[in-house]
Amino acid sequence: MSPQLRTAALGRARQTFDIGDTGRAAWPHVDDATVRAVVAAAEADRGTDWPRLLLSDYARYWRDGIRTAYEQPAGELRRRTATAALAAALHGQPYLDEAADGLLQLCEQSTWCWAAHERFATEAGQVVPDTDRPFLDLGAAETVAVLAWADLILGAALDDRVPGLRQRIRRETRARVVEPFLGSREWHWLGLDGHLHNWNPWIHGHLLAAALFLVDDPPTRERVVDLVVDGLDRYLGSLPADGGCDEGYAYWWNGPARLAEALDLLDRVLDGQLDPWRWSPLPQLARYPHRMALGDGWYVNVGDGPARPSTAQPWQVLHRWGRATGDQQVVDHAASHRVPGEPAVTVDAGLGRAVLGLTDPQWTAQPPAAPPLPATTWLPDLQLLVSRERAGSPRGLTVAVKGGHNDENHNHNDVGSYLVALDGAPVLVDLGQPTYTAISFTDRRYEQWVTRSEWHNLPVVGGHGQAAGRAFRASSVVVDTGVDADALRLDLAAAYPPEAGCRSWRRQVRLDRRQSTVTVTERWRVDDPADLRLHHVVAGEPLTHTAGRLAVRALNGAVAVLGWDPRLGAGRLQRQPVDDPLLRDCWGDAVHRLVLVLPARPSGSVTVTVSGGSD
């Protein structure tokens, strides 16, 4: 950023939003449904005890690997404070006192860092964080964001009601966030080693808000903003030209979307002089959500991500992004989530996102639209094909198949895996994200069953699943797209460890629109054919299972039929109970795995089909 632009931005950041007072009149564009929802949530909160943050819960990360015992109440404290702050901005008392109570509780936390990230305590062999050495992580960034946006919308009211609170907020921000950020270039999320992921824009975006709204010293503010811009530029430069996100749809909201939000905030305070929206690959990145949509809230999910995430996403971010890039399909996908009579924004996605959405009259006035649901999406950098039977409709079959490698961000060992949805609901599935524990991001990651290739729609070769690491990847990737059919061909052999003895495993996944059928053809050459299996992970209710045929009632009630050569027999249908709450929210109490044992021959081929049908 040039010095001239930087000076202009830092000089008028607060004035950009022109929120001069609390109460409904200060928010001319807010919709009544949002006001009612926010005030109702704040009123419901006032009748309950505040969350308690306990050392015993924090220490569970080290004791039994449980993260959520602390992270959930910490997140609830942030959510409740943010809700009260917005309710106070829209309605005034009694929510101003509630917001002040929450803001002070945030300031009085011993740490803003989550235990799973607290490297300094771990290195010292402790479970109590050192308050003189704060660790700057997502938890700290999320907390300072609540403080920053609450200070923006409640500043004068807080000074009148609770003098001194804003000074306390600034002191904690300086000690816990600003000084650690300026004092070290060793934070892994800076990406200085070339490894960039969602932490970069997520944290940098919150630091930008903190600098603009909470740092009163101009030279310090300038240093923070300069480093934020440098970090965002590094992340932008790491993104693939095709607009893909290897972390999947759910993390797209906290990766590329966070980047867009931060750039939007800079652009707003610069009166549009930054104008980043044509920068590559921002226009392509905005298309990722509608390209991954299956219908009825289901999405293509790769890596750690739920197949049916909450619909309460910050759609206003995507809407503004689509308008800025002039992409009507992006605008329409965001607008398809505007429901008449329901709030335009929710605080659950973040206080800053809600504030920006409520100061965007084009979003608050947006009527519903039909989602675009393109017929074919091919992302060559990510090696991901999504093919739909009918453009613009979730009806019929949709197939998604990926290549890539096994060292992607939030990786599952899933090279060559595919999913099939019928009328929008996945039937052959990618299970997605389990609840995170102490092993989720360690060398024990693949002890989790859902991350292993054996629980994806993939072969087992010589008794071996796929191996983790960038060297284990797809090869000979070829895509064919057309009006009548789309197909992806690739060789999976290099995704397996050498001891599997896999010379080649050529897979073709093809959607035939005329025949309304997905056909998956496997051709292999192996050293030892003693243990060759095809695994298919199935969601829904198995109906009939015979040699060469399995009928499944999908979670939406549609019936899908899997077919194969009856000479392979019926295979084994294994029921897998699902006790993880995140997985259960998507798939119910159990999923099934169909295991087909392949002929014990060093070379051969087999075909599996999926179609709509009846039981």
What does this entry show, briefly?
The chain is of the alpha+beta class and 615 residues long. Helix content is 36%, strand content 20%. The longest helix has 24 residues, at 68-91.
What report would you give on this structure?
This protein is α+β, with helices and mostly antiparallel strands and 615 residues long. The chain has 20 helices and 21 strands. The protein has an 8-stranded antiparallel β-sheet, with no helix packed on it. A 5-stranded antiparallel β-sheet has the order 3-4-5-7-8, with no helix packed on it. The model has no long low-confidence stretch (mean pLDDT 94).
Task: Give structural attributes.
20 helices; globular; alpha+beta; eight-stranded antiparallel β-sheet; 20% strand
